[in-house]
Amino acid sequence: MRIGELASRAGVSVRSLRYYEEQGLLTSTRSASGQRHYTEHEVERVMFIQRLFAAGLSSRTITELLPCVDSPSEENSDAALERMAQERDRLSERIADLVRTRDALARLMTMAREHRERVRSAVAD
User: Fold this and answer.
1) pTM score of the predicted model
2) Hey, is 23 helix, strand or coil?
3) Which of 12, 38, 78, 79 has the fewest CB within 10 Å, making it most exposed?
4) For 69-101, what is each residue's pLDDT tens digit?
């Protein structure tokens, strides 16, 4: 299938597919005229890559994990598990930062509401 059909079936843009190829996440064969051609397998691969991006992984991290998918081995699996643990820890820290930021914002909102009520009460008196 050609790039437009793959994009349509996988629910991504043609530009994304070109980016995936640039990053080494996806490969294609080329026709004599230079058009990209893909197999049915690439539809699932692109959807898998999309799920990894949605989980917050970078293209570099995905590139490091794909050998475990493409040619599973004990060595690849150990490396992938270590990398995924690093990503999990990074995401956990990011979540903790977001929770702290949310909580600080909630405190500021409470203070602003209290101040507003004091001002209204003072004006009403």
Assistant:
1) 0.69
2) coil
3) 78
4) 888 888 888 888 888 899 899 889 999 999 999
